[in-house]
Design a protein that fits this description.
- The protein is α+β, with helices and mostly antiparallel strands and 124 residues long.
- The chain starts with 6 loop residues before the first strand and ends with a helix.
- Helix 1 crosses helix 2.
- It folds into 2 domains: 81 residues, Roll (Structural Genomics Hypothetical 15.5 Kd Protein In mrcA-pckA Intergenic Region, Chain A); 31 residues.
- Strands 3-2-5-6-7 form a 5-stranded antiparallel beta sheet.
- It is built from 4 helices and 7 strands, in the order E-H-H-E-E-E-E-E-H-E-H.
- The relative contact order is 0.15.
- Strand 2 and strand 3 form a beta hairpin.
- 29% of the residues lie in helices and 23% in strands.
Length: 124
């Protein structure tokens, strides 16, 4: 006889793990098809997930990849929420900082050239 694995609705789990502030936000995200479970796009917030599943979803400007370790029983404090998953998100490359203008009067021609060059470098 096989053991039953504990499962939970995906909207509840993402809320328990504190990735989103409300379940309503999670529900809209899932219904729009922006969440993948084990590389399969889902569209129902009632989809069940359990330990061992891998989730891929967008959180603001980042794409998050997490592996579920536990289902959880409540939306507890942050350390408890972080124990529910393993973060597999790849590191983002460091952003190039544009030169700063200290704001004392109008920028010089050299300041403007430096700014335009830095913007051009960021686009390439």
């Amino acid at each position: 006889m096989t053991e039953e694995r504990a499962t939970i609705r995906i909207d509840r789990w993402l809320w328990f793990a504190r990735f989103f502030k409300t379940r309503g936000i999670v529900t809209k995200l899932v219904q729009r098809g922006h969440v993948r479970v084990n590389s399969v796009r889902i569209s129902k917030p009632a989809h069940t997930v359990g330990a061992g599943d891998t989730l891929t979803f967008r959180q603001e400007t980042d794409i998050r990849v997490v592996k579920i370790i536990a289902t959880g029983t409540r939306r507890g404090p942050a350390p408890e929420a972080q124990a529910l998953y393993q973060d597999l998100t790849p590191e983002r490359p460091a952003r190039v900082q544009a030169p700063k203008f200290d704001g004392k009067g109008r920028p010089t021609k050299k300041d403007r050239r430096d700014l335009m060059n830095s913007r051009r470098d960021m686009l390439e």
